[in-house]
Design a protein that fits this description.
Strand content: 5-15%
Organism: Granulicella aggregans
Structural class: alpha/beta
Radius of gyration: 16 Å
Helix content: 25-40%
CATH class: Alpha Beta
Bound molecules: uracil
CATH architecture: 3-Layer(aba) Sandwich
CATH topology: Uracil-DNA Glycosylase, subunit E
Protein name: Type-4 uracil-DNA glycosylase
Shape: globular
CATH superfamily: Uracil-DNA glycosylase-like domain
Family: Belongs to the uracil-DNA glycosylase (UDG) superfamily. Type 4 (UDGa) family.
Length: 204
């Protein structure tokens, strides 16, 4: 059974976690990714934002949300007056999963087994940071922390309690907004995303 657990240090501090993460071979994804990408942000941030997995640029740079999805996240946070540097930003899965298409590396959704295998890292980060509120971006992060019965489109923006953190919320993934089929659905998704993040800022 694949799991990151043997690679996660006993000491749950962001420093210890960051030092141990590069050696993770807890599932197969490390084989093709450039590097594992851990969280970034204050060690005791009040809000933790959890994405799905690093994308192409994150994989290269070793930092979360520094590509197109990150730019949309940054813009939205800025519009809401939320300072990204005060948030701890991480992902449910620490290695980039992709298929190679010529020069392009195309994102692939992580399997539930990969999300589950990587969960010990996320739980260690939560234990280290102890955020007041966790915001899951998209279905993969929600699956990790809220379980398979959570329905993103029905329950986005609801503040829920979990064994890991007292307050957990999920909203759209910025990449989903970038992939919207037309302008009308894009603006509708943007409104949803903004409203949920605005609520998160208030809850926190
Ligand atoms: N999408 C994610 O879910 N996480 C990142 O870090 C970048 C893109």
């Amino acid at each position: 059974k694949t799991s990151a657990a043997p690679f996660v240090p006993a000491e749950h501090t962001v420093t210890a976690i960051g030092a141990a993460l590069p050696a993770c071979e807890g599932c197969e994804l490390y084989k093709h990714a450039t590097q594992a990408v851990g969280g970034v942000g204050p060690a005791h941030a009040k809000m933790m934002v959890v994405g799905e997995q690093p994308g192409d640029q994150e994989d290269i740079k070793g930092l979360p949300f520094v590509g197109p999805a990150g730019r949309l996240l940054d813009q939205t946070l800025e519009e809401l007056g939320i300072d990204r540097s005060e948030l701890y930003v991480t992902n449910a899965v620490k290695h980039f999963k992709f298929v190679q298409k010529g020069k392009l590396r195309l994102h692939e959704n992580p399997r539930l087994s990969e999300i589950t295998a990587c969960k010990p890292w996320l739980l260690a980060e939560i234990d280290a940071v102890r955020p007041k509120l966790i915001v899951c971006l998209g279905a993969s992060a929600a699956k990790s922390l809220l379980g398979g019965t959570f329905g993103l489109m029905k329950q986005h923006g609801e503040v829920l309690s979990t064994p890991y953190a007292e307050r957990v919320m999920a909203t759209l993934h910025p990449s989903a907004i970038l992939r919207a089929r037309d302008d009308a659905s894009r603006s509708q998704m943007m409104e949803m995303f903004k409203a949920d993040l605005a609520k998160a800022a208030l809850v926190m």
